[in-house]
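Researcher: Quick one. two chains, 842 residues in total.
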Amino acid sequence: MRYSQLFAKTSKTAPHDADSANARLLVQGGYTSQLAAGIYTYLPLGLRVLDKIKNVIREEMNALGAQEVLMPALTPKEPWTTTGRWDEIDVLFKLEGHGGKEYALGSTHEEIVTPLVQQFVKSYKDLPTSVYQIQDKFRNEPRAKSGLLRGREFSMKDMYSFHLTEADFEEYYERAKEAYFNVYRRCGLEALIVEASGGAFSKFSHEFQVLTESGEDLVFHCTCGFAQNKEIAEVKEGDTCPKCGEGTIKADKAIEVGNIFPLKSRFTDAFDFKVAGPDGKPQSVLMGCYGIGPSRVMGTIVEVHHDDKGIVWPRGAAPFDIHVVSIGGKDPDKVLAAAEELVKDIEGCGLEVLWDDRDAPPGEKFADADLIGIPLRLIVSEKTLAKDAVEWKERGSEKTDLLPKNDLLDAVRAWVGLRVA
Amino acid sequence: MRYSQLFAKTSKTAPHDADSANARLLVQGGYTSQLAAGIYTYLPLGLRVLDKIKNVIREEMNALGAQEVLMPALTPKEPWTTTGRWDEIDVLFKLEGHGGKEYALGSTHEEIVTPLVQQFVKSYKDLPTSVYQIQDKFRNEPRAKSGLLRGREFSMKDMYSFHLTEADFEEYYERAKEAYFNVYRRCGLEALIVEASGGAFSKFSHEFQVLTESGEDLVFHCTCGFAQNKEIAEVKEGDTCPKCGEGTIKADKAIEVGNIFPLKSRFTDAFDFKVAGPDGKPQSVLMGCYGIGPSRVMGTIVEVHHDDKGIVWPRGAAPFDIHVVSIGGKDPDKVLAAAEELVKDIEGCGLEVLWDDRDAPPGEKFADADLIGIPLRLIVSEKTLAKDAVEWKERGSEKTDLLPKNDLLDAVRAWVGLRVA
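Model:
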C-alpha cells in the first residue's frame, strides 16, 4: 500500500479531549476517528489492526473446537424478561419499533444463545457444544471514556459453552483459559488471570488483566500466580500471599482484557433447557461464557506499547509488517524505482508493506512512521543505494543497521518469523 | 468439517411462517435461525456463505481502489438533523441514551461518511477518493418479510465516492457498474441494470435487479439493455422499445440486489464540504453512493437457485466446495477410513469439505445433502471402494458418475476451477 494513496493520514495535533494514550495515539496515527463519546470509526489502518486481532481470536476459538455464528444486535424484549435482565442490566440500550415492539441492543447474548442452542441440542449426546461470535455490542454507558477501552459501541468475541456435567465444564473452562493466554501472547500482551466475583450463582469468575498505570481496575497479586480483583480481594498490599505463604502481595492498576464465567444453570434453567441424561432423567444443562473485546484489546495494546513518539505495535497486531520509507535526493525517480522494486520483492514473500512514497522531507516521514508504529522500518535513499543496501530500523529502538540488499529478504523473513513465534 | 460435529443441523419441517423460498430453505438447511420478524442468526453454515459473499464484494471494491473502513451503527442525532433526514427517513430506528442523548441506528451512512471524508480531504489533489464498509444496518420496517430479503437488521456494503468534477464522477460510476456485475457473476446471479428515480437531485439512479417470480419489484426491459423500474417507467409491457426501436418491452418481477446513486452535492453541501479547485476557487465536492446487501444477495441466490429438494448453491457462495457422503455397509469402519483419507486429500488441495460421517441411512444423508445444496457431492461406499472409485454427483443434476479414485483429485481441481472461472 502506498501511503500517498492511503485514505486518512496522521495528524500532528492531538485531539483536545483525549483522556488516554490510546484515545490520542490512535487518532493521531490515522487509525480511528471519533464520531461521538465512546463511538469510533475505524479508518483503513485501524480496521486492519482490528481485523488482525479478531483473526487471532477466531483461530484460537476454532482450535478450541468452538464454532462461529453471528447473532443479531437487535434483540426482542421477550428473552430478556424471561431471565429478568430487561430491568437488571442498567446499560441496556432499549428502543421501540413499529407497533410498539420493544427491542434491546445486545450488550451480551446469553438471552439469545441459550434458546438458540436449545433448538439443536436434544440429547446429552449433543453435549458438550460451544459457539462464539465476533460482533458489535452496545452499552448505554453513563460516561464513555479512555478511547477504545470503555465505549458505547465496541466489538466483542463472546463464546458460550454447554455441558452435561460439572467435570466436563471444568475441563473446558481450563482449556479456554489456555486459549485466552494464546490470544494475549500473540497480541503482545502479558495478562494475569485474576479471580473475580462469580455473581449470585458461582464462587468465582476469572478476569484477564494487563497491568498498566493507565488501567482503571486494581489487582492484588503475588508472583506465585495468586491474583484477585479489588471487588473480592481478601488481601491488601504488603500482606503475605495466602496461597504460597511466601510472596508479598502487590497492588497494581490494570486493564481487564477478557473474562470467563461459570454460569452454571442460571440461563439454561430460565429457558427450561434440560436434556435427558444417560439415565433417561432430565438434567439441567450447564453453561459457561467467555468474552474478549477485540477493540478493547486494541486500545490496551496501545496503552502498553507506545513511547513519546507514537505507537509501537507488536508484530501480531501491526497494520502492516513493514514500513518502507523512501527518501528522495538529487534523483528522486531512481530512489522511487528502487523502493518500488524492494516493496514488490517483500510483498512477494507474502508480507504486507506500507510504503511512504510521498515527496516529503525525511523528518516528516520518520515522524509519521513513529506515530504509525509499524514494528520494522526499511529506509531506501541515495545513500543506501550507493552502498547497495537498505537501512533497517526497528520501532522502539534507536539503532539503525545498514543491510546489504542481497541479504535483505532472508533477514526480513527471519525477523518476521521470529516475531510471530 | 465433519457433519456429525457441525453445530445446527437440517430440519425436515419447514418453519410455519415462511413466506418465501429463502425463509424456508435457509432455516431447513441449517443456515439461519429466526429470532424475530426480520431478524436472523447466522448458524455456522450460514455465516460461511455470508462471509464468502462479503469477501467477493470486498475483493471487487478493493480492485476498484476503494478502501475499507468501519463506521459505527450507533450514530448521534446531530448529523441527521444537519441533512434534514432525522425526520425524513421513516425507517430510522431512534433511541435515547444517558443524559437524554439521542441516537439513530444507521440505515445508511451518508451523514457519517461525509464529515469523515471532509476531515481528510483538504485539497482537490486528495480527490477522487472512495471508501466502503461492510457492516450491519437497521431499518424499522413496518412489515419485515421474505426471509433475508427485507429485514430489520441486515448486512450492507455501502461505498461512497468523492469527486471534483462531474466527468470524474461519471468515469468512476461506470467502473463501479462493472465491479457490481463482477460481484453478481461470481455469486451466480444474472443482474439487469435498471434505471430508477434519482430523487430530487439527479435524473436517474440505477438498480441491479435479478428477474425472478418471487421478486416484489417490477422491471420493464428489452433485450437491448433498456430497463426501467416501475416507479419511473415510461413504457408498458408490449410497447416497442424506445431505445432500440425494435424489441418489445417485457415486464418481469425482480429482486433488487444493489443500487448506485449519483448524490451530486446533496450531502457535501449540507456539511459545507468544499475544496479549493486548481483555480483556487472553492468548489462543491461531488459524491456517489453504491450499495449491495450481502444478506440480501444470499437470500436472492436461494430464491433463484433451488429445487423442490433444497438449495442449489452456485460455487462462489457455497458453504463448502464439496460434500463427501460416506455410506456404511458390512464394514462401516473401512468406509469411514477411506472417506477420511479422501477428505484429507481433497483438503490438501486447498478445498473445503463437509463430510457426512454420521451413522445414518443413505436416504437421510442424501436428503440432507439436497437440503444443504453444496454443488458437488462425492459418495464413498463399499460398492465404490470395491471398484476403487467414488461416485460423483452434481447438485441439481440427477446423473451420477463413477470416477476412479486415481483420477479424482485432478477431476475435482478441474471442476472447481471451471466453476470459479
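The longest strand of chain A covers residues 250-264.
Researcher: Thanks, that's what I needed.
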